[in-house]
Amino acid sequence: MNILIYGIGGIGGYFGxxxxxxxxxITFIARGKQLKAIQENGLKVKSILGDFQCTPDLVTDDxxxxxxxxxxxxxxxxxQLTSAAKQIAPILGENSLVLPLQNGVDNPTKLMxxxxxxxxxxxxxxxxxxxxxxxxxxxxxxxxxxxxxxxDNTNSTRIQKIDAVFHQADIKSIIPKDIHRELWKKFxxxxxxxxxxxxxxxxxxxxxxxxxxxxxxxxxxxxILSVAKAxxxxxxxxxxxxxxxxxxxxxxxxxxxxxxxxxxGKPSExxxxxxxxxxxxxxxxxxxxxxxxxxxxxxxxxxxxRSEYSK
Length: 311
Ligand SMILES: NC(=O)C1=CN([C@@H]2O[C@H](COP(=O)(O)OP(=O)(O)OC[C@H]3O[C@@H](n4cnc5c(N)ncnc54)[C@H](OP(=O)(O)O)[C@@H]3O)[C@@H](O)[C@H]2O)C=CC1
Ligand SMILES: CC(C)(CO)C(=O)C(=O)O
Known about the structure:
Residues 178-299 form the Ketopantoate reductase C-terminal domain. Catalyzes the NADPH-dependent reduction of ketopantoate into pantoic acid. The chain has two domains: 2-177, NAD(P)-binding Rossmann-like Domain (Rossmann fold); 180-309, N-(1-d-carboxylethyl)-l-norvaline Dehydrogenase, domain 2 (Orthogonal Bundle), CATH 1.10.1040. By secondary structure, it is an alpha/beta fold. The chain has a five-stranded parallel beta sheet. Helices cover 48% and strands 19% of the residues. It is built from twelve helices and ten strands. The radius of gyration is 19 Å and the shape is globular. The structure holds NADPH dihydro-nicotinamide-adenine-dinucleotide phosphate and ketopantoate. NADPH dihydro-nicotinamide-adenine-dinucleotide phosphate (NDP) is lined by residues 7-12, 29-32, 34, 61, 75-78, 80, 84, 101-103, 125, 127-131, 257, 269.
């Protein structure tokens, strides 16, 4: 298979790196210092499961050099996805498939602005990884898993073929019965902790010690559930209990990636998380005061980091 990994950061670097160890033809789209370092020395992945070094078949920022891909894995942030979709659309063939792995529930919709719905899959991943330095990606927590499916959940031949490739690359993959439910379960977790963590600027241990903050997190989660219900997504009250069990089991020093971006003054996924809930709630005539408060309080800082990023 010709596989293109678009964006070689925390997740693109880990999963792209594993794929580059197989016999499949692997292309990395990277830019800046990351591109230069990988072109010169390959990619090093430091992982709690064992470090490895890989050299993809092609590393470039020029899509004109890239062979028509059978599969594109999107490794950019959710707010970079629409522009990435526009870039790759011209090189896709009729049978090319595009798999987004971003957190959030509207990533396939963003892709469909430029890519035919029939070519878009849905997915997400679990691991904690980041760019340690140019050419070096560090996976430091969770056993990496990649959950993916067709948008209509059929276990198609093309899904099975991709799954076989993931197995060859020693990537633990899951094809769920209902991808939308699984995506929303992760979204419920990440959206419940990220903005509140970014606003309070302390790790989960200190957030969960405060009964006031705990109850704010509970309200955030219940509002997300009400939006999911209005959208007829199968998210349940018991999923909230599981989220709070996970929160209480987390290492006290844990922070989510969006919280870390907010705290570092970098552009974050605020818009994809609480921003999405606020907008969907408005469309469905639902009140989400806690999500609205988190979103509006963090928005000025988000706008500032965006304007600095685009300079
Ligand atoms: N990291 C993690 O542990 C996890 C992340 N996720 C989700 O995965 C998604 C990606 O996160 P993460 O891997 O941390 O993000 P990173 O910022 O580490 O990686 C994204 C990479 O894509 C690059 N990129 C963006 N646009 C382009 C472009 N046009 N051309 C070439 N390269 C480009 C970025 O470069 P540049 O820096 O120059 O913009 C960056 O290197 C997010 O939705 C996140 O929520 C989910 C689970 C875990
Ligand atoms: C919570 C976690 C680490 C799970 O993969 C994640 O998705 C993130 O920090 O963005």
